[in-house]
Every structure is written in C-alpha cells, then in structure tokens.
Design goal:
Number of helices: 9
Organism: Actinoallomurus acaciae
Number of strands: 9
Strand order of the largest sheet: 5-4-3-6-7-9-8
Structural class: alpha/beta
Largest sheet: 7 strands, mixed
Order of helices and strands: EHHEHEHEHEEHEHHEHE
Radius of gyration: 18 Å
Shape: globular
InterPro entries: Ppm1/Ppm2/Tcmp (IPR007213), SAM-dependent_MTases_sf (IPR029063), TcmP-like (IPR016874)
CATH superfamily: Vaccinia Virus protein VP39
CATH class: Alpha Beta
GO molecular function, one term: methyltransferase activity
CATH architecture: 3-Layer(aba) Sandwich
Number of domains: 1
Helix content: 25-40%
CATH topology: Rossmann fold
Keywords: Methyltransferase, Transferase
Protein name: Class I SAM-dependent methyltransferase
C-alpha cells in the first residue's frame, strides 16, 4: 500500500499500536474468535515497525478480552436503543464498526495526539459518532454526554496506567453524573502490576509497556463499592470461550489456581 501513514507515538499512547497489532493478528486467522476487518485495514495503512512487539502470542487472549467488551456493549444497546456509549482512551479500537446497530450514539474521548492519528486513519465521524480531544481525567467531557436514552462508559486498557486516586475520582464522578448508567473496564491483578513496576514483565530487549499503577484482583468488588455511595453494584464479566486451552476461559473465574491470575473485566452499575 502506498502513502501509508507514519505513526510515531511514545509512552501510554503507543500501547494503542500493541492493541491493534494483536487484534489484527487474531482477526487474520481463519479460525479467529474476533471478526475485525477494520483492524486489518489499519495495520496495512500504518507505517510502523510492528515487529518490535514480537510474536503476537497474546493475540487470542486479547481478542477474547475485546469480545467480552463487545458483548457488554451489545447488551446495553439491546436494553437502551439509541443510548450513548462513551469510549474513554479508545486508541485505535474499532469497536464501533463491530457492534454498530444503526442507532447507538458514540463519543470517543482521547488525547489530542491520538485523535490526530484517528482522524487520518478512520472514516469521518457520522452524525451518531463524535470524537473529543482531551483527557479522560478532565471531567468536562461529561458535559458532552446526552444520557437521556441511557449511557454506558467503556474504557479498555486505560485505568491501570492511572494513579489510584485518579481512578477513584473518575469512577466516583461517573457515578454521580450518570445515575442509572454503567461503566465497564479492565484491570490487572496486583501481582502483575507489581511486576510491571519492577520492569520484569518482559525480557531484556523486548517491548515493555509503561508501568501499571492501579490494579484490582478478580472479585475485589468492595474496593470499587467504597469509591462512591452512588455505586449500586459491581460484578466481574465472564470471558468468552476461545479455542485450544482458552476454551476454558469462561471458567477461569471459578478455578482456584487460575482465578487470581486473570485480568478482570468489571461492570459497575450506578444508582438511579
């Protein structure tokens, strides 16, 4: 492909390329657990040395994580036709094109440098989809949300890079501003976050993402409930069934030796 877009990102924004690389690697398989043609298009359109991420050994796991989010969004769209999904720190996620039902309204909130990349690579925003340049921690984005038909806030691969007090403040603010709404997010267990901060999650010379600062073990719901009295419920979502060893993914939350090792995907519901 000619005229490929050269992308140069560092720090947390660069992780969006790791995510895209793994989604595309899985989508390329004939037995893929995730259908994501838009991700394949993006990889071909970007001038970036994806080989620096090494072999995509975590591609299927990453795709199952993404699929878990997709299913949660689809459940929301069924329950709240014409509702609004707010995607915080979306990167080059292509979820809108995977789940769009022709009615959902979509607001992407991303850092300016990432928005610049998105706008050059992804189709122009249709009337139902908007992109806002700014930080998820600047709560002014909440003023842009019409929650009249229901709201779901989704954030993938973001909260673990924030400080604990930032995560608490963000979740508490969402609970206060969007009564009856919900938030879905992923996290990393404490032991992985500790290894990340020590810098030993990857061998010397391999790609290393920025350190994870906020963590949550599966089932550690009380910690989230303490963030705000406006939080009505917290639950871990079940991973979809994969292939090979990951056919057991839906059962991981019930297997004692595996439960504490998995990366939880959590749904938080707000009081009406």
């Amino acid at each position: 492909m000619t005229d490929r877009l050269k992308v140069e990102l560092t720090g947390v924004p660069e992780t969006l390329l790791w995510n895209l690389y793994h989604r595309a690697a899985e989508a390329r398989r004939p037995d893929a657990v995730l259908d994501d043609p838009k991700a394949l298009e993006l990889v071909e359109a970007i001038d970036f040395p994806f080989e620096r991420f090494g072999e995509p050994k975590m591609a299927q796991w990453h795709a199952l994580r993404v699929l878990c989010f997709d299913r949660a969004v689809r459940r929301f769209m069924t329950a709240y036709p014409g509702g609004t999904v707010v995607a915080l720190g979306e990167g080059l996620e292509t979820q809108f094109w995977r789940v769009d039902d022709g009615r959902v309204r979509w607001l992407t909130v991303e850092l300016p440098e990432t928005v610049a990349v998105r706008r050059r690579l992804l189709p122009d925003d249709p009337p139902r989809r908007r992109t806002l340049a700014g930080s998820a921690l600047d709560h002014s984005w909440m003023d842009e949300v019409d929650a009249g038909e229901g709201v779901l806030i989704s954030t993938q691969g973001l909260l673990m890079y924030l400080q604990p007090d930032e995560v608490r403040s963000l979740i508490a603010a969402c609970a206060e501003r969007f009564p009856g709404g919900a938030l879905i997010f992923d996290s990393v267990p404490h032991f992985l976050a500790e290894r990340s901060r020590r810098g030993d999650l990857a061998p010397e010379g391999a790609y290393r993402a920025p350190a994870w600062h906020w963590s949550l073990d599966p089932g550690e719901h009380r910690k989230i409930l303490e963030y705000s009295p406006r939080i009505a419920g917290v639950r871990d979502l079940r991973y979809p069934r994969g292939r090979g060893l990951l056919t057991l993914a839906p059962l991981a939350g019930h297997m004692p030796l595996v439960r504490k090792l998995r990366m939880p995907i959590v749904e938080v519901s707000f009081a009406a």
